[in-house]
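Hello,

I think I submitted the iron/sulfur cluster job twice by accident. Can you confirm which output corresponds to this input? Input:
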Amino acid sequence: MSRIKIAELFYSIQGEGRYMGVPSVFLRTFGCNFKCAGFGMPRGEVSHEATDLAATHTMVKAFEKYQELPLVSTGCDSYASWHPDFKDLSPMLSSDAIADGIMDMLPYEEWRDEHLVITGGEPLLGWQRAYPDLLNHPKMAGLKEITFETNGTQKLTEEFKQYLLDWVCKEDAWRQITFSVSAKLPGSGEKWEEAILPEVVCEYEQVGYTYLKFVVATEQDLADAECAVGAYRSAGFTGPVYVMPVGGVERVYSLNNRTVAEMAMRKGWRYSDRLQVPLFKNEWGT
Ligand code: SF4
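Support: Only one job matched these inputs. Its output is below.
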């Protein structure tokens, strides 16, 4: 039986993108190929919030579970789902344990209109080989919609691509796969040539409904997003584009959400909120 290193498994309302407002199970896998230490920082500078917290945790085992972790206002807001110093908070769980955990949190112990969000970290790293075992589990049979929240840099393996195409058509049930691609612009601190990989994202479009979602704060970010959209379109990408305000904490989010909504209108793109920030303060487990 396959096992997956799970940073978090929780039930909440999806706060971002296409499924905003939909009750959702979040499966947050451990590990990411990026750090995104530039979020919320002046261009060219990096945040040390995550590394400082990690150093404290390593020295004194400061935290016993995700819910105890502080929120950060700069850098990656899900830092503990990839920083190696927080590995001890993320158990390796079997498909059985994950499926049981999901049934325990669904209000009727069966899938109704809830959707599954597989997020991270970066959920399309090595875990692609483990998802079929979980999705084939009898307790997952009623699931109809899955979103992969990805940074858009990981190619689908041929086996997993075929599995997803078969999953959508299985048993004549209506099912849908979505790829929510949060491609990282230079404001994240990641390198363009490693973050903007149009051919990878075009391949997701062959498998499921795919959209781009850019975190923006400044006019420079918006110009970068426009340049990236041009690159994706040139490669054949046809899906919609969202812009979303920066801000894992309410103070930062509410400073720029209206500005970003106005940017979306100017460009003819979609605005994605971060509903989890005003609703739940973006605490771990929400
Ligand atoms: S890609 Fe996502 S999870 Fe990974 S470091 Fe960046 S924001 Fe965090």
